[in-house]
Design brief:
The chain contains eight helices and no strands. It is an all-alpha fold.
């Protein structure tokens, strides 16, 4: 279909099938394209001023630096966002797009659905592929936004990509290709658990406030335990908790045998502290060196 340079201002093309259509230079200002299938469509130099693209499928669409995306509507909630996997962004100006309104890409929404549009339960291999595609879409958006200097929005989509990668690994665990391979299955499980832990502790480096929160929780919890179990004064317990957390614990009140509950508890805190410190290093590395 060739509609190059057509005047399609305010046209209603909800759920239209426009696969691989040529819309180069077309004027689509305020057009209604909700749910439209635009896979592989050429939109170089097209004007999409305030066009509504909720739930539209823009996978593998072609933009260029002259494409006008000012004010386009990509989403109005978590259940009606555009699909963006494989989009050819080609230096199109993304500063005119309201990315804060996009909470979850349509690619991710599709991956989360347990059933197909026909109502059939999805195969595990299909879940793996859909989560992989959704992760790729978020990662691609993050890279494009970061290249244009929008680090805040880029961080959001990069974080979503890491979550989707973890979900992809989860479904890989239960796919027929890995269930019958115990060693590989165990490796995937360990990787999945470690990934989940890094997310909880530091949000993969994108949420440093989580690390601070868990640091304070661990220090306070173990200090309370030292007061109850070791009968230490609150200040002594706090100091002992801080030194144990950072692997420099000492025995309050003289030498203490290794089988003492207080000593064993301090050893546990040291291990927990090591994990949180690793997540902190991950946070700092991600925040200052990965961009």
């Amino acid at each position: 279909m060739c509609l190059s340079s057509s005047n399609l201002r305010e046209v209603d093309m909800r759920k239209a099938i426009l696969i691989r259509a040529h819309l180069e230079g077309a004027i689509l200002s305020r057009a209604h394209l909700e749910g439209a299938d635009l896979r592989g469509t050429h939109l170089e130099e097209a004007v999409l001023y305030k066009a509504n693209l909720e739930e539209a499928d823009l996978r593998n669409v072609f933009f260029n630096i002259a494409t006008n995306l000012e004010g386009i509507v990509l989403s109005k909630g978590k259940d009606s966002c555009v699909h963006l996997a494989g989009v050819h962004w080609a230096d199109v100006d993304l500063s005119v797009v309201n990315w804060s309104s996009v909470k979850v890409l349509g690619d991710e929404q599709k991956a989360h659905r347990p059933k197909t549009i026909d109502g059939e339960v999805k195969q595990r291999s299909a879940r793996v592929n859909e989560y992989r595609a959704a992760g790729h879409a978020n990662r691609q958006v993050a890279i494009t936004l970061r290249d244009q200097g929008f680090n805040g929005s880029a961080d959001y989509f990069a974080y979503r990509a890491r979550i989707l990668y973890r979900k992809e690994r989860w479904w890989q665990l239960w796919s027929s290709d890995h269930v019958h391979m115990p060693l590989l299955w165990l490796q995937l499980l360990i990787a999945w658990i470690f990934s989940l832990l890094i997310d909880v502790l530091a949000g993969y480096g994108y949420k440093p406030e989580r690390t601070i929160f868990w640091y304070l929780v661990v220090i306070a919890s173990f200090a309370t335990s030292y007061v109850i179990i070791g009968h230490l004064l609150p200040l002594q317990a706090l100091v002992f908790s801080l030194t144990s957390f950072h692997g420099r614990g000492f025995s309050p009140g003289g030498n203490m045998p290794l089988d003492n509950p207080l000593t064993m508890l301090a050893a546990v805190e040291a291990v927990v502290g090591l994990m949180i410190e690793i997540s902190l290093i991950s946070t700092v590395t991600q925040k200052f060196f990965a961009k």
